[in-house]
Backbone:
């Protein structure tokens, strides 16, 4: 079995139902949640979004929000001041330029405050059935350890390499599976190498020797 197939099979076996762990009920809520999730855990974001969305149920309410009022609701997450500013600005942009509808084109998404390539990929793949792999810290680390990307690659280079290696129809599911694999198994510290089904194909320098 080749390495690509092995990785896909192992991830399917380990995480058959991998999916976004952010809670949302519509396009607006997912976009806000993803912007808030930068350098913060999904669990932390899920704690603040229920009250945030109750207070500001659509882009229209959020677009006219006072920054201090939003900050109070999200101040338990990292970088909350900047994120409060960005989500209000994003809401204004969506109201002004996109008739209040979260856009489905990459260029339009990336024109919004707080939305970079990674966030756009999450939105495109989860909301608009556009295959994409958002390379976050977990996906980047796992890709390097498995030898799918180089240590010197940046996240964009890693994303492009993953697109060449894996079939397009698997990208969106693979994205979630690689996050789960990095979050729960191939963790930054103390990865579970000795029980790992990808041990033989892994290129990680520091993996412990099997005796
Ligand atoms: S062997 Fe260790 S470092 Fe390599 S993929 Fe498995 S858990 Fe990660």
Residues:
């Amino acid at each position: 079995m080749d390495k690509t197939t092995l990785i896909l099979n192992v991830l399917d076996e380990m995480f058959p139902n991998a999916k976004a762990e952010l809670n949302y009920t519509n396009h607006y809520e997912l976009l806000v949640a993803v912007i808030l999730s930068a350098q913060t855990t999904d669990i932390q974001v899920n704690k603040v979004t229920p009250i945030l969305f109750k207070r500001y149920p659509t882009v229209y309410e959020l677009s006219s929000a006072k920054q201090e009022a939003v900050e109070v609701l999200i101040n338990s997450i990292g970088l909350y001041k900047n994120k409060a500013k960005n989500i209000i600005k994003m809401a204004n942009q969506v109201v002004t330029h996109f008739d209040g509808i979260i856009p489905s084109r990459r260029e339009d998404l990336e024109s919004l405050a707080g939305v970079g390539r990674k966030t756009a990929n999450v939105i495109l793949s989860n909301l608009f059935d556009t295959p994409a792999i958002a390379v976050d810290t977990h996906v980047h680390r796992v890709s390097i350890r498995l030898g799918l990307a180089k240590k010197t690659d940046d996240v964009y280079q890693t994303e492009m390499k993953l697109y060449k290696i894996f079939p397009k129809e698997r990208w969106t599911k693979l994205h979630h599976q690689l996050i789960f694999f990095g979050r729960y198994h191939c963790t930054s510290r103390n990865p579970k190498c000795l029980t790992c089904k990808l041990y033989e194909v892994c290129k990680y320098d520091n993996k412990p020797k099997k005796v």
Notes: Residues 5 and 166 are 9 Å apart (CA to CA). The domain at 27-127 is CATH 1.10.340.30 (Endonuclease III; domain 1). The chain has two domains: 3-17+133-201, 27-127.
